[in-house]
Amino acid sequence: MAAKADENEYFVREIERNDGCALKVKQCFLGDVGCVVWDAAIVLAKYLETKQFYDPSSGVNVWSGRTVLELGAGTGVVGLMAATLGAQVIVTDLEDLQTLLKVNIQENEALISSGSITAKVLKWGEDVSEFLPSPDYVLMADCIYYEESIVPLVESLKLLCGPETCIVCCYEQRTEGVNPEVERQFFELLQQNFCCEEIPSEKQDPEFSSPDIHILHIRRKA
User: What is the mean pLDDT of each run of 10 residues along the chain (222 residues)?
Assistant: First the structure.
């Protein structure tokens, strides 16, 4: 059955692709963190179509046929961008965000030709066997904010990622409250098993980037 969204509960945000088509992403007026397209999600979505990954004029398309898993997908904007570029995508989040994910997938189906996208429940720290073998890419936008979620998130990354998996992590550095400590704990725990490479701003989308928003490529240590 088609996912149904009450029109009064949502407003639509458009994210334009480089080819002029726009992803239309519904967001909730009310709700918690998952219901809004965060800036980091847009920065990451636009990064996926930078020339190093996707350049139709020279025939480059890193995403074509690749398997991609998005964690903490929220509205699904990042996974949707990957699917429109030709990736085979699974967007994941908690049970209560599945309706919003499915609505947004339906809204953008016309933009997806060679790629595919499905929404599934994945609770960090729990069984990931249905998402194996390991995907080529794991995408994460602004997933580092709750202290209690750090250990399960890193556990999920360890279970999901094989030696060839590249995690592309985008997050907004926040200086208030517990945020700096949560970030520190996350990277300390992560670096026991993974190495991180920060992507310089010149490799990001020139318009959709910000000094506060960081993009990292994260891989398992050999």
Answer: 57 92 86 69 97 96 98 96 98 94 96 97 97 98 92 98 98 88 96 98 94 97 92
The predicted model scores a pTM of 0.92
Dist. CA 149–CA 154, nearest whole Å:
9
Of the candidates 5, 16, 10, the one whose C-alpha atom is nearest the C-alpha of residue 80 is 16
Of 24, 3, 23, 30, the C-alpha closest to 12 is 24
* Residues β-bridged to residue 28: 10
> Strand 213-220's sheet: what is its strand order?
116-121, 88-93, 67-71, 137-141, 166-172, 213-220, 194-198
Take residue 154 and report the two structure tokens written for it: 């890193």
Give the number of residues written for the chain.
Answer: 222
